[in-house]
Amino acid sequence: MEDNLLPGERIDELHRNGYKIIQNVKKFCFGMDAVLLSGFANVKQKETALDLGTGTGIIPILLEAKTKGSHFTGLEIQEESADMARRSVALNQLNDKIDIISGDIKEASRLFGAASFDVVTSNPPYMNDNHGITNPELPKAIARHEILCTLEDVIREAARVLRPGGRFYMVHRPFRLVEIINTLSVYKLEPKRMKLVHPFLDKEPNMVLIESIKGGGSMIKVEAPLIVYKEQNVYTDEIYDIYGY
User: Fold this and answer.
1) DSSP of 152-170, one letter per residue?
2) Can you tell me the distance from the alpha carbon of 64 to that of 21, in angstroms, rounded to the nearest whole number?
3) Residues paired with residue 192 on neighbouring β-strands, in sequence order
4) How does 57-80 read in b/e, with b if 16+ C-beta sit within 10 Å?
5) Which residue, 25, 17, 15, is CA-closest to 92?
6) Is the overall model pTM greater than 0.85, yes or no?
7) In angstroms, rounded to a whole number, what is the distance separating the alpha carbons of residues 76 and 92?
């Protein structure tokens, strides 16, 4: 398989079911947020799931490894990332369980049809024009800033492709939490479960994990916070071991 790697690419171990992933460190590699989202999300037996903005396919691959879902789909607009994701799916012999589709998040409901998935996940760009400096490298900029889609685009399309009672799982930044909850409500996605992630015990949270239900009632469970110590250089295998993800 290494003969099929393009310049700058490498194969990384995922420490789940012997799975691996192809990444390019000069483009964009998955981070702790994707790993935590894959642990927070739940895809039940016979359910299908769509990952909006899948990048190199990390979330569908991890969800296939740890849940009982029947089929997983990743949607990615950057063809280079989608190509790496497809090759990672093939590397892990998961072609019958995972599809990687090239396309725009804003067109998800047109591509897949309304009410076509039980679960939607997304690790969307966190920053808009008012937040931070845009990375000069376009692949990283697209992944981090709302260049090709907005928070509302992600939530709107998640609501449209979800079946009634379906679940939407998202990881984002707490400083946009009010905007997130308001937008979820507009599209009839009711927040039901939330977990804040802290980089240190005495520091404010830098990530929030949210589960919403399409057409759900108005009640939310705020789970115990998760502390991820950055100085320990926690990565995939340590997160699995320490936090049960």
Assistant:
1) HHHHHHHHHHEEEEEEEEE
2) 13
3) none
4) bbbbbbbbbbbebebbbbbbbbee
5) 17
6) yes
7) 19
**Is residue 122 within 8 Å of 153, Cβ to Cβ?**
no
Two tokens, residue 199: 């980089």
**Cβ 114 vs Cβ 160: under 8 Å:** yes
Give me 17's structure tokens.
Answer: 């079911």
Provide φ and ψ at 6, rounded to 5°: -90, 165
**Residue-by-residue pLDDT tens, the chain, 245 positions:** 566 799 999 999 998 999 999 999 888 889 899 999 999 999 999 999 999 999 999 999 999 999 999 999 999 999 999 999 999 999 999 999 999 999 999 999 999 999 999 999 999 987 565 544 444 444 544 445 445 689 999 999 999 999 999 999 999 999 999 999 999 999 999 999 999 999 888 899 999 999 999 999 989 999 999 988 654 444 444 444 434 44
Buried b (16+ CB within 10 A) or exposed e, 100-126: bbbebbbebbebbeeebbbbbbbbbbb
Q: Which tokens hold the place of 211?
A: 């589960």
**Structure tokens belonging to residue 123:** 């690790």
Measured CA to CA, the distance from residue 43 to residue 46 in angstroms comes to 8
State the virtual CA torsion across 36, 113, 77, 66 in degrees, nearest 10.
Answer: 30
Q: Which amino acid is at 142?
A: I
DSSP-derived pairing of the beta strands 162-172 and 117-122: parallel
Pairing between β-strand 162-172 and β-strand 20-24 as defined by DSSP bridges: unpaired
